């Protein structure tokens, strides 16, 4: 089994790559800065590294990279700098999601490719009519205006919900929504829910990046977990923060 990971040099992406390799997966990564990958990953015999940015690749290039993959995982995100948040590309996550899903369809896989998107608990799922207070609606509206990365995350999830949908033959999907991300050295107990159990704005929980990586790896490698959550936007919290 082979998984293509984009955003692999980021704080969560590299943890996901490690989790997949530990499970015996072959992993491909497309990274702009390969030097940011840990040395133990770069030397792993089951890891293939392609030095590029997605925006540089043609449609044929993407189809070639996606071909033969049973799963695609996106851990892309914007750097928390002025340039990263307000400079181009504004649709980093949404464009990558669309391009990779289209490439998966063009590759004509023998069975649906699993697409796992790392998203955000601050992004509501309209399909479930999740209850949101007036205060939170106002806060999210302000965030949409002030922080373009939030809109990018919304557009990426909306593409999966509305364009890929529930019955696509080539692609199935899950959008994983962690709450406030923290660092941890080891996987700990965590909880997964269909919708937020607390306000991501006024009463945020915490989710360790390594737990997010573990859950994403479970989705990719465990069919029972996949079948439980495919076509959904599960929210993940460290145990005790649900």
Topology:
Blueprint: E1 2-6, H1 13-22, E2 26-31, H2 39-42, E3 47-51, H3 59-66, E4 71-74, H4 82-86, H5 92-106, E5 113-118, H6 134-146, H7 148-164, E6 171-178, E7 180-182, E8 190-193, E9 206-208, H8 209-221, H9 223-229, E10 235-238
Parallel strand pairs: 1-2, 1-4, 2-3, 4-5, 5-6, 6-10, 7-9
Antiparallel strand pairs: 8-10
Helix pairs in contact: 1-8, 3-5, 5-7, 6-7, 8-9
The assigned structural class equals alpha/beta
Identify the CATH class: Alpha Beta
Helix content: 25-40%
Rg measurement, Å: 17 Å
- CATH architecture descriptor: 3-Layer(aba) Sandwich
Strand order of the biggest β-sheet: 3-2-1-4-5-6-10-8
CATH topology: Rossmann fold
Task: Give the full name of the CATH homologous superfamily.
Answer: NAD(P)-binding Rossmann-like Domain
- How much of the sequence is in beta strands? 15-25%
**Largest sheet descriptor:** 8 strands, mixed
Unreliable spans: none
Extended strand count? 10
- The shape is globular
Mean pLDDT: 92
Distance between the termini: 33 Å
Folded structure, characterized:
The protein is built from 9 helices and 10 strands. By secondary structure, it is of the alpha/beta class. It has a single domain (2-238), classed as NAD(P)-binding Rossmann-like Domain (Rossmann fold), CATH 3.40.50.720. Strand 1, helix 1 and strand 2 (26-31) form a beta-alpha-beta unit. The protein is globular and about 50 Å long. The two termini are 33 Å apart.
């Amino acid at each position: 089994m082979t998984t293509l990971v984009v955003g692999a040099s980021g704080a969560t992406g590299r943890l996901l790559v490690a989790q997949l390799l530990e499970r015996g997966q072959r992993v491909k990564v497309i990274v702009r800065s390969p030097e940011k990958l840990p040395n133990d990953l770069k030397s792993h015999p089951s890891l293939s590294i392609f030095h590029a940015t997605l925006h540089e690749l043609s449609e044929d290039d993407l189809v070639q990279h996606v071909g033969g993959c049973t799963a695609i995982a996106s851990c892309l995100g914007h750097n928390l700098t002025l340039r990263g948040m307000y400079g181009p590309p504004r649709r980093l996550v949404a464009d990558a999601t669309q391009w990779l899903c289209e490439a998966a369809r063009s590759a004509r896989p023998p069975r649906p490719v699993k697409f796992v998107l790392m998203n955000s608990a601050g992004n509501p799922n309209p399909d479930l009519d999740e209850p949101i207070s007036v205060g939170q609606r106002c806060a999210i509206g302000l965030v949409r205006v002030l922080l373009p990365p939030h809109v990018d995350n919304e557009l990426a999830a909306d593409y999966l919900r509305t364009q890929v949908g529930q019955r696509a033959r080539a692609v199935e999907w899950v959008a994983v929504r962690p709450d406030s991300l923290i660092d941890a050295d080891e996987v700990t107990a965590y909880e997964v829910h269909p919708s937020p159990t607390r306000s991501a704005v006024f009463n945020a929980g915490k989710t360790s990046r390594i737990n997010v990586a573990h859950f994403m790896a479970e989705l990719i490698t465990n069919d029972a977990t996949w079948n439980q959550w495919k076509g959904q936007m599960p929210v993940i919290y460290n145990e005790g923060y649900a």
